[in-house]
Input
Amino acid sequence: MSENQTKKTKSILQAPRGTRDFYPEQMARLQWLFQLWRQTSLRHGFEEYDGPSFEHLDLYTIKSGDEIVSQLFSFEDRGGRDLALRPELTPTLARMIAVKANALPRPIKWFSIPRSCRAERPQKGRLREFFQWNIDIVGSDEVLADAECIFVALDFLRQVGLGPVLIELRVNSRFIVSTLLIDAGIDAERHGQMFAIMDKYEKLSEAEFDKYACEQGVCDTELTAVKNILRVPDLSSLESLSRSEQSRAELAKMRELKQYLDDFGVGEYFVYKPAVVRGLAYYTGIVFEIFDRSAKMRAIAGGGRYDNLISMFGGPSMPAVGFGMGDVVLMDLLDELGKAPMIPSHQPPEFFVIDADPSLFGMVLKIVGCLRGKGFAADYAPKRQAMGKQFKYATGRLAKFAIIVGDETRTQNLISVKNLQSGEQRQLNVEEFLKSPEQLSL
Amino acid sequence: MSENQTKKTKSILQAPRGTRDFYPEQMARLQWLFQLWRQTSLRHGFEEYDGPSFEHLDLYTIKSGDEIVSQLFSFEDRGGRDLALRPELTPTLARMIAVKANALPRPIKWFSIPRSCRAERPQKGRLREFFQWNIDIVGSDEVLADAECIFVALDFLRQVGLGPVLIELRVNSRFIVSTLLIDAGIDAERHGQMFAIMDKYEKLSEAEFDKYACEQGVCDTELTAVKNILRVPDLSSLESLSRSEQSRAELAKMRELKQYLDDFGVGEYFVYKPAVVRGLAYYTGIVFEIFDRSAKMRAIAGGGRYDNLISMFGGPSMPAVGFGMGDVVLMDLLDELGKAPMIPSHQPPEFFVIDADPSLFGMVLKIVGCLRGKGFAADYAPKRQAMGKQFKYATGRLAKFAIIVGDETRTQNLISVKNLQSGEQRQLNVEEFLKSPEQLSL
Output
């Protein structure tokens, strides 16, 4: 091999920067997470959907925020079409619903667990490739829809041991922030930029934030006004600042949201937080983030109302609300708290078939073949070896029953069945056993 | 909106060419398939793994066949690294195992359900984006490993109703084809090209094949020799052609494979087929395809031995065998045969909570919140409406029990529970009920 080839072989031995290899041990954790996300979604009445893993580039450049567009992995197909790996699923959702809006039964309660890619600098909690649980309700402008989305997130988090002592739900309304910005003399057309700036407030120190805002052209009195909005301490103070009827109506929605969350039994997580505005361009009303309460204060999930997105894609006017929760920060947090489960990466066999002599191996395969064909997890030792070693292997695989094939199987059709937990052992006719192996488990 | 923008909006409303949108109805089918693939793999003792959805371009250009490389979606990251969407998972598997070969417990029995992309012209059964079930055993040169891989595929297919009348397992050995080619005076260095040509034999008419082979420089006596190999009718005829000891040893392996498949109870699917050589460059020994027996004769799955791939990636010498089965041809076939299942895209609720009066709605939410929190599928009508309509909605969602909240709930803590199948109804204390809702299902 030439030196150049050696170098190439070396580089290809690594997963690309910011991506992960999932060996069985890691994959078992990921599947545990996916299964919980899926089960929780389903029992809350959501249906699963998915779209392509890449879309036309325009789908993102037209409607998403600049931050996302700068992070796209884009490429051309042979026909010269511009495509991009999906950085998130919401534009796909909006496209799919815009096209079939009238044929879809309402309410549209959908979930998905897409794999997405962003070409950003990899760092702790942020990778170039990740999974994200998406929950959305489309076609309802009721606050109850916001509450349903938030409840499914909190119900999941409670299940994995993240109670209100460990995490909090931070709620705000972009609509109210907009009215306050207008009161401060900042025109509506600049609000998108303001939201992007305000979104940095909790991520930067005070001095860094001032510098950053100023660089973006928000200085002096404007900066003071923005910071006053970011520091409103609670809903009562917000009420005294909310002068218009619309603004008060929106505030009432936040109170209604809190009431629904109380009814659902997850009101304790609720915190009003004026600095939560979300980075994406398409949010319109209530926005929320779920935060780790520890010193690291990472966002575990984020979402909100995006009432205009479906119609922007040519669909009918359909209000919508949803959130995304990534796998990376969540699993980091569970690991730190010792709440990530230990899961075997294999399915422990119900039956482990052992031969007393290699000449009986064909019979082992017949029994294993029959059991697997009937839907049971069944296995045998990878090598023909002494019974003691086969038993040891069975125990190592966490098998429940050992089935021993011996001379009496050949001569009398008898097998010995040993319960590997209790040690209890008995003889059975092999055909009787194979007719209903499930009886053993009773 | 300008005309240009309108056009853009129109184009982005479609999924990219050769990709699919999975609305809940289609997603439920896909999840049904994934769950069966996963359950079957696990009960056969395989562990799940996965890699990144894109890899360094070199991973594919160095070792895979030219056909695959010409079909890559490739792109650069910001650091100028050449990357490509994975067209298949085997190079990733080889990379992952090469790196950790000594740390991995043997036998390595792994499965995965990757989403992969190929930039080929979309056609019936071949899309640009698809899912593929991958099964591999690494570290064993025993024919039993080949048999295990094939058995898990056939066990799955049998489960979905594809018996040996409908499909067949076509088996051959590249090793034997190689010895026959050498006997015909064709040097080993040209065998890769020969395999690629022979792989087309069943896909083209006789005349088309002759023309294609000739264009590739295989004419006259060579073409006759190749076609003689492609027409060997059975293993006995093959035996009379196999002169070397190695060749006979390989033939014995094919017979051993048939014996193991008989033991496992799936021998009926076995057919020797000299035209099966597989398109990919890395196969070394036994190769196989599972074919639809109908007139359309589509390949449902394909695989074989690739004993040199791990060491090519700098790992130790580790023999390996595996296969891939895509979702597209399989689901097409099941649809044509009427064997694809009808699955509701939502989880039918165990409990559906109904209010006798909108003023009781808060109590509905409390009960639903409590039930979902305990892991039950619970739901309620999306609108506050008459009880009759709520019952109708409950039935439409295939709910099992209706929980009716009325005045007596407020005054006496009593709810009515109605079994929606039997019509049986009784009153319960709401707190007693919520303590153990599962008792109702008994």
In short: The mean pLDDT of chain A is 92. The domain at 15-336 of chain A is CATH 3.30.930.10 (BirA Bifunctional Protein; domain 2). The CA atoms of residues 160 and 339 of chain A lie 7 Å apart.
